[in-house]
Amino acid sequence: MPDRNNQFTIARDGNACAVIVVPRTPEPRLLDAVADIVHVIERMAGPTLPVLTEGIQPGDGAEIHIGRTNFVEKSRFLPESLPVNGYRVAVCAENGQPRLVIAGPTTLGTTHGVAGFLTDDLGVLWGMADPLFEDIPVRREVTVGPLDRTERPTFGFRTLLGPDLTWARRNRVDDGNRTLPYYGHSHNMHAIMPPDQYRDHPEYFAMRGGKRIIPDGHFGPQPCMTHPDVIRIGVEAARKYFDENPTHRTFSLCPNDTKEFCECPNCAALDAGMPMHRGNKIYSDSYFYWVEAVAKEILKSHPDKHLGTYGYWATVLPPRRKEKLPPNVVVFLTVDSSQYFDPEYEANDFNLLHEWRKVAHLVAYYDYYALGWFMPRVYHEIAGRTIKRIADIGVVGFHCEAYTHWAHNGAQFYLASRLGWDSSLDPAKLLDEWYARMFGEAAAQMRAFYECLERCWMEVKRPGRWFQGFDWIFDQFDFWPADARQEAWDLLENAYAAAKTEITRRRVDYVRRGHRTAYLMPVSYERAVALKADSPTLENDIRLVGAAYDEAINRYRRDIKTDPTYGHHYYIGTTYAEERNFLWWQAFLGDAIEKALAGRPELREKLVAEDTTVAELLRVRSEADAETLRRLGWVYRDLEARRGR
Ligand SMILES: [Zn+2]
User: Fold this and answer.
1) Nearest alpha carbon to residue 352 among 249, 455, 277
2) What is the DSSP string of 595-606?
3) How far apart are alpha carbons 522 and 557 in whole angstroms?
4) What is the whole-number distance in angstroms between the Cα of residue 358 and the centre of ligand 1?
5) Is residue 351 a part of any domain in this protein?
6) Does residue 334 fall inside a structural domain?
7) 218, 230, 377, 518 — which has fewest CB within 10 A?
8) Structural domain count of the chain
9) Average pLDDT score over the chain
């Protein structure tokens, strides 16, 4: 179809009006994005667009060029200043034939271009990772143009660690590859200084309590940060990395995941007098002494490269210095914005960011949205205002550990993906659209549900505390009072009742199923706390504890654990979330039941024989190890403390 007024028709009346052309050797991720276009046009207008490979299958007429085809290269379609994750999308012509071109300098830029075109120009919305939350408008004709847009994200990089890769691609979330500007971190000291390689040099390692400690893996102590050979080894490691990976932009100089640093006389002299922070000794002066020495050498040999470092835990405070760190140093400042319900905590974080910017030219924001929480932790307003604020300040990147619990965090991840791309957008309008597009006739009720969860998180009477509740499921229960929990559940039921179409009913039900475990876990806990040995209904009371536990765990196994869009190790497996927190939860229920049955051996025997859930909880309690028993002590201690308030 010839272009009329620079318009480009993709499909009309059930027919394809163009073909897709891809470069000769496309990367798999580019073909994934092409499949997204084909899929969207099928759903939107009916036809399946043919996909041709350049130079193999000849095209004729209207073509959609995806990525760096010959036409893109020859016509110098891409501005040289585009970052690797930027793109240009335009309707134009080649030898009088219409072209729709979507391309970026790299495959990542091109896939962002496709996602941007499908969402901004064709109106598609992928609200959550499950295919149920795909919203594609239906049209008789799909025509675009005039169109010529060059886009680049607000931040050098925006990475959400955790969400499904398909959802991330369709929402322009960066993939964390090392060609991204400023992106390069991870606990790396154990790789820079492999203990096995330097066992003959104990003086390279941390002196703690008068002894050198050779670490074991990435949780072991850092090396001696002032030893000249350790500086030399750091320089060599960075140079080797850049020489072997010429397209990579940033090498990680980040410490191991521990707060233990060298305290030899030289290192200790640098760190002397530094105030404690959050109860931890701070080693920023010795660590950044080493960073500066390495960075200055890398500046000579690889002036266009960067070095990633952490402002985290024992290095969370900036080093005390008059001059800025070398310009190639990127500091990833780790924050916990979930705690910004406390204005003082938030002010402290931004003060810290301000102090870091006095010391470092390049500061990135490293946040944690989900971190394996089972109870809802919804803070849309904080998320929106924080991303806008750090963009205004000039933070160079946004990285977030965001292990998805879609029923709770879906809207927040969507918000972060949109604002991370374009921080000038209005978070309230983005949320309006998300509710309306995802839940149609039940949008108002679903908004009320999420706002109830958010109110509960925000209107708390406790000070903000770094990582509070992450490794302790009982804190999570306590942060979600019974009346708020019931209100949220009732609102969700209202939304289900308001849903009139099949798609809305299924979407509300997805959230309801994903939320049910969270609702029932604290119910079982509160029923266990309320057990009284002298209750005339003790048998039934205990069975009700078992019933709430049973439904919660079965729902978890059926609706969360089997859902591939949840499947991150922070939920599934040996980290805090599942195995440890679930063990403590089960052991507490068993303990409370055991105590209530102390003087009732016949009733105990009867329940064990008749109620397999109660029998299971008693078994978990009887097999509890010393660590679990110690932690049960904490639960009772906290319960006492609350009764005393
Ligand atoms: Zn030292």
Assistant:
1) 277
2) HHTTT-HHHHHH
3) 17
4) 26
5) no
6) no
7) 218
8) 3
9) 94
Is the predicted pLDDT of residue 435 greater than 50, yes or no?
yes
| Torsion sign, CA atoms 409, 410, 415, 417 | positive
The residue from 282, 309, 336 where one domain ends is 309
d(CA 622, CA 390): 50
CA of 287 to the centre of ligand 1 (A): 10
Residue 632, number of CB atoms within 10 A of its CB: 19
Q: How far is the CA of 573 from the centre of ligand 1 (A)?
A: 37
Ligand 1: distance of its center to the CA of 473 in Å?
Answer: 38
For residue 635, the enclosing domain spans 499-644
Rounded to the nearest whole angstrom, what is the distance from the C-alpha of residue 241 to the centroid of ligand 1? 25
The CA 225 to ligand 1 mean position distance, Å, reads 5
pLDDT in tens, 40-86: 999 999 999 999 999 876 667 999 999 999 999 999 999 999 999 99
| 86: three-class secondary structure by DSSP | coil
Amino acid identity of residue 318, one-letter, is: P
How many Å lie between the centroid of ligand 1 and the Cα of residue 542? Answer: 58
| Tens digits of residue pLDDT in 283-307 | 999 999 999 999 999 999 999 999 9
Tell me which of 293, 309, 325 is where a domain ends: 309
Q: Dump pLDDT digits (tens) for 370-398.
A: 887 889 999 999 999 999 999 999 999 99
Cα 233 to ligand 1 centre (Å): 15
Q: How far is the CA of 206 from the centre of ligand 1 (A)?
A: 6
Quote the ligand 1 centre to 203 CA distance (angstroms): 8
> Given the structure tokens 């806008």, which residue do they identify?
388
How far does residue 230's CA lie from ligand 1's centre (Å)?
A: 10
Same domain assignment for residues 15 and 148: yes
> Cis omega (within 30 of 0) on the bond before 228?
no
Cα(212) to ligand 1 centroid in Å equals 9
The letter for the amino acid at 209 is G
CATH of the domain at 24: 3.30.379.10
Measure 311 CA to ligand 1 centroid, in angstroms. 19
Pairing state between β 51-53 and 97-103: unpaired
Distance in angstroms (rounded) separating the CA atoms of residues 359 and 598: 62
